[in-house]
Amino acid sequence: MPEIVVAIPTFRRPQRLERLLRALAALDTGNAPGILVADNDCVAHQGFDLCSRLVTENYRWNLDSTIVAERGIAQVRNVLVGRAFLDPATRFIAMLDDDEWPEPQWLEAMLCIQSRTGADVIRGSVLREFEVRLPDWATGWEGVAPIWHATGSDAMIEGIGNVLMGRQCFEALSQPYFDPQFGLTGGEDRDFFVRLRALGMRFARAENAIVYEYVPATRLRLGWSLLRAYRTGNSDMRIALKYKRGLGDVIREVAKILAALLAFPLLSIVFSMKPSRRLDGVRKLYRAAGKIGALLGHRYYEYAVPHRR
Fold it and tell me: What is the third-level CATH fold of 4-219?
């Protein structure tokens, strides 16, 4: 493997994966990254077949692909990391989702900020491209709003789409790197970064390391957005319970939930005055409900249904 590996989990999105691979082939870089794809569909394996075809077409970079039979995004990420770091020469792994595609200068921008800051994890910007017009109420919602922060250090990184990580991040962790319990629920990336932060790893943002993400019409429906808020609350509380085992910590989390529920009527009135925020109170309510569900032992399996991705 080369010094830098771009790792891509994929599941039944061959057209989007091809767009990503074509964009990677067009990178303007002095490096020679390796591209590693893990297809989580062992039946049709369209992503794997696509990679095989591109290799026969003399794809620009070293393109390696594998099939992961066990369903779950955490399981796929673990296979990608293990495969990438089999080669002791691999220093960095960058993860992109299969519905993203980078600008030509993306990799150089990532490496520049890593060299400047010495951070263990760098996250770039994610700009959205929508299939249909973005509703006013959704402009700031998770999964729809752009992810952009000025370049510099950060206390925490939430998601793993468009992230560059040093080998030391994984050498410091016990395996599995990504908890399989979050494989079909989501939240495996936040859980991963919580562990890294506890080990003293440093995070930074690279505003000019830009990738674009395709947002289908299904993700611009209110029902999808509210269920995403529920899932986020659900996985966040599961992570909190995983690492905060004392009664006092649990009580504090419950207090946050009660505060959100009590504030809902007032927030609904305040937010109704601005079209872009008129449903924010409902979103917070669903997020609180997700946390309550986790406290009661409920898990929301968002990624068990392919179209929800």
Answer: Spore Coat Polysaccharide Biosynthesis Protein SpsA; Chain A (3.90.550)
